[in-house]
Amino acid sequence: MASPASPASSASSNSSGSRSFNPNRPQTLEDLVNHFVASKRSLNTQTVLWRANEIVTSARELLEENAILAAKNASIRNIVDEQVDALEGVRRGIDVVEADVQAEFKQLLHELDTSFSGLQSTLAVLRDTPIESVLQPPETPQKHLFDFIDSATVTNLKDSLRACIDRYNEARSGLGESNDTFDTSLDNLHSSIDNVPNAPATSSTPSPIPLIYRDLEGHAKEAAQAFQSLVRHYDLCVTALRHTEGGSAAATQATGDAPTPSGDDFSAPPGPMTEEERQEMLAVLVKDAQEVEDVVFEIRERGSEMTFLLSQVEDHIVHLRNEDDALNSILRLLGNIAVQARGHIATSRSFHASWLEDTRPTLVSGIEEWEHQREFYERFDLAYAELLVEISSRRRRHEKAKRKAEEAQRELDRLYAEDEKAREHFTVAQGDFLPLDIWPGLRDPPRKYEVRAVGLDRYEEGAEPPEGEDTEQGVQSIPQLGRNVVERALTRVKRRM
């Protein structure tokens, strides 16, 4: 009578529990009635079968949902991983653009500072280089080379570069705010992903539901088979009572008029049966009666186990549903971040375009302009030094020409005196003999030549320009520079050659 999954075990007492059960003694009517009552009571386990059927049906539906949710969740996780990788790639790309621009910006800023420092050093030299007072009109305030440059050009360029750097810092600040927002979104995304329930089933740990479902089907099948054995035992008890005198009345009195599960009616006449067949039947009945309690216990145990297994299936499905809800929230969050990412990319592109179109060319132009101005002002300083050397050279040439002119004037004056004396001697010797009209120039004095400077010499020997002469058109005197001034200028010239 025991099911294949649960071998029969000996019972220490019969189902009524009223007295010790001895299978070897002859079965009385009371024994048969007790077996019948116990077997009929055992058929109450049919409710366990109904519940088992409900459990299997529910488990089958949950098995289908498990397959759908597991596939859906795995697919969404793959999508999430791909989208996160893409967003992380975008974020890294923005960082690369910013890092490249910032590295070049720092390099150009260093070059700009170096160029500006060089220009400032040159301007400092101009500030410290005074104009020699002999080169300026009398009572003129002391001037320096710096007073002769257009400092507004330096100031304007400096202001322009400072404004350019301010624009760059503003653009970079905007990019930083955008990146901070992007990072916050990614951090929230990773936090949300970390809070998604871990998948209870993986490739290495598959879902337990298919195995549990097979166990449930096995338990339901075994319980049904065990219940069929109880039904057969009940039928056997009914048959035994029919073939026992007074058995039908005793059974009816013991159980009342309630219909039997198999629909048997004790009022129906029993079929023919020999005494030997009856004894064999009673032997089987007695043997099965010993197993009724164990079979009932087995059915109930299988029902309890099925209830427990169903709770495991339901717990697993709840986990999958929670995972599904969380992953759907992640997808919505990814959609929002993807929309925001377009704005972050646009900010990065704007920053890069501003760098290429504004900041970088302005800084490069500023460096070139600083270098150009430094070279120009260095050349101005050198030109002034060369001017001092040139003034000294002109003074020397002027002095030499002046000496030559004085020598020539003295020679002309000597020739004039010699010519005048010779003419007087001739007049004395031959003048009485020659008529005046023989040559009109006979009595003319010698032609007098004079060596003089052309133009105005304003300062030399206190000469004043002739009345009405335009002093701007005259030739000014060449200043006399001190020897140390000329030597310093010559040293600067030689140092920069």
UniProtKB/TrEMBL annotation:
Segments forming a coiled coil: 388-425
Pfam families cross-referenced by the UniProt entry: ATG17_like (PF04108)
Region named Disordered: 1-25, 248-276, 458-481
UniProt entry tagged with the keyword Membrane: yes
Compositional bias annotation for Acidic residues: 462-472
Biological processes annotated in GO: autophagosome assembly; autophagy of mitochondrion; piecemeal microautophagy of the nucleus
Protein name per the record: Autophagy-related protein 17
Source organism: Clohesyomyces aquaticus
